[in-house]
Design a protein that fits this description.
This protein has seven helices and no strands. The chain has 176 residues and is an all-alpha fold.
């Protein structure tokens, strides 16, 4: 496995290679470069391939839950998936009902993207924002309870955006 120094180097190279100067997920570098990589890929794929963006976000959410379970000593049973892992985290009091609901939304969107080839820009944008919220929860829970994330950075707009998507992206940009 790569050393933490090479993981950091990979993440920094990845961050500078992508078109966005800042990622909504860069704070996760304090935990694991793979978190940042998945988040940045989701942001990168958003304009051209929202389905792939959603799949990357599902992977990120699953990895966050796996790391959370490992950090508190909750073991996965053979054959358990994200649904059972989230139930165990909630049972242990690590996940509030709100956070469990957000994880469930990402899981459902990811399932639809993976198994039904669904995933439009509206769903991808919503899933990006939800996963960003989960990443903040993770960072506050396992690193810095006082962490202030700042605003959500809207992704690059797709070429053929709908009126609703354009309005939502413009609203997010004005919030910055």
């Amino acid at each position: 496995p790569p050393s933490s120094g090479s993981k950091l180097s990979f993440a920094v190279q990845t961050m500078t290679r992508f078109s966005q100067p800042k990622s909504n997920f860069s704070h996760l570098l304090a935990h694991d470069a793979q978190f940042v990589r998945l988040g940045m890929l989701a942001e990168r794929y958003f304009p051209e391939d929202p389905n792939t963006s959603i799949l990357k976000l599902r992977q990120l959410a699953e990895l966050l839950a796996q790391f959370a379970a490992a950090r508190i000593g909750v073991r996965d049973e053979a054959g358990d998936g994200q649904f059972e892992r989230l139930r165990r985290l909630a049972d242990e009091g690590i996940l509030s009902a709100e956070m469990a609901g957000l994880f469930a939304e990402v899981r459902r969107a990811g399932n639809a993207a993976a198994h039904e080839n669904k995933g439009d820009h509206g769903t991808a944008l919503a899933t990006l924002r939800i996963t960003w919220q989960l990443s903040i929860w993770f960072h506050r829970t396992f690193a810095d309870p006082a962490f202030k994330s700042g605003p959500f950075f809207p992704p690059v707009s797709p070429k053929n955006e709908t009126i609703e998507l354009r309005q939502e992206l413009e609203r997010l940009r004005s919030d910055l």
